[in-house]
Amino acid sequence: QVQLVESGGGSVQAGGSLRLSCAASGSIFSINTMGWYRQAPGKQRELVAQITSGGTSNYADSVKGRFTISRDNAKNTVYLQMNSLKPEDTAVYYCRCTAQPMGVISSRIYWGQGTQVTVSS
Asked: What pairs with residue 20 in β-bridges?
């Protein structure tokens, strides 16, 4: 019903930047919150940043001032600009959205397949 496709991961040295993109496609009536989570080896998945359809965003304390989330509602796409990357930012980054498919009364949660971000010191 709703598919999320991420792009933009990769390897970078500490202090560098990366930009992640996530495009939602399918039979979509509306998309509410879009966000990014990450999971490092041996750790639980955690929220990085999320943004509502109205543009209200919130961030994990660990990324405040370094990461910026934005979205293009016309393209059903969310972005994560990551600056001043640190080795501890290394993780698989997952896109997540809450969306209402066509013909469905309630919203559901959807996840992307994940994209690897590796930051070397």
From this structure: 80
Q: Smallest Cα–Cα separation from 41: which of 7, 91, 4, 112?
A: 91
Q: Is 85 exposed, middle or buried (0-12, 13-18, 19+ CB in 10 A)?
A: buried
Give the chain as a 3 state SS string. Answer: CEEEEEECCEEEECCCCEEEEEEEEECEEEEEEEEEEEECCCCCCEEEEEECCCCCEEECHHHCCCEEEEEEHHHCEEEEEECCCCHHHCEEEEEEEEEEECCCCCCEEEECCCEEEEEEC
What are the tens digits of pLDDT across the range 20-39?
999 999 999 999 999 999 99
Strand order in the sheet with 2-7: 2-7, 18-26, 77-82, 67-72
Q: What are phi and psi of 32, to 5 degrees?
A: -95, -105
Long-range contacts of range 59-66, CB-CB < 8 Å, 24 or more positions apart?
Answer: 62/88, 63/89
User: pLDDT at position 1, please?
Assistant: 86
